[in-house]
């Protein structure tokens, strides 16, 4: 089991938009996106825009995002979300294999080019 340290969670969430984070938590909870949005605001006592105005480009207030990060961490520790394995850090093994064979192909091509 991977422990959800602050550094691990921050690294995972650094490129995730607020909207994507709402979707991840909604899927883990089995809730609607709107319910997650409203619950996160209620938990930190921050009044936000109505759900209808929130879209993919919208930014959540900092305390609300932190509440969603806390929920993310709770779900990782509960096992309802999984941290990526270190081997997945550079892509899937399938993608690495394709890259490896592509490079071998280039080496063979240049060797043949030199001799012929």
What does this protein structure show overall?
This protein is mostly helical and 116 residues long. The chain has two domains: 6-83, no CATH class; 91-116. Helices cover 61% and strands 0% of the residues. It contains five helices and no strands. The chain has helices at residues 6-13, 18-29, 33-43, 62-78, 93-115. The termini are far apart.
The SSE string, one letter per element, is: HHHHH
First CA to last CA: what distance? 55 Å
Envelope shape: elongated
Biggest beta-sheet profile: none
The radius of gyration is 21 Å
Total beta-strand segments: 0
Q: Helicity range of the residues?
A: 55-70%
Query: Could you say which structural class the secondary elements and strand pairing correspond to?
Result: mainly alpha
Structure described in brief:
With 116 residues, the chain is mostly helical.
Topology diagram in text:
Blueprint: H1 6-13, H2 18-29, H3 33-43, H4 62-78, H5 93-115
Helix pairs in contact: 2-3, 2-4, 3-4
Keywords:
single chain; mainly alpha; 61% helix
């Amino acid at each position: 089991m991977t422990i959800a340290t602050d550094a691990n969670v921050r690294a995972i969430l650094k490129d995730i938009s607020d909207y994507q984070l709402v979707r991840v938590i909604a899927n883990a909870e089995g809730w609607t996106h709107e319910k997650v949005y409203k619950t996160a605001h209620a938990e930190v006592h921050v009044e936000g825009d109505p759900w209808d105005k929130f879209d993919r480009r919208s930014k959540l207030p900092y305390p609300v995002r932190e509440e969603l990060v806390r929920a993310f961490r709770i779900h990782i520790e509960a096992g309802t979300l999984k941290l990526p394995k270190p081997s997945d850090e550079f892509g899937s093994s399938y993608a690495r294999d394709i890259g490896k064979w592509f490079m071998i192909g280039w080496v063979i091509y240049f060797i043949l080019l030199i001799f012929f």
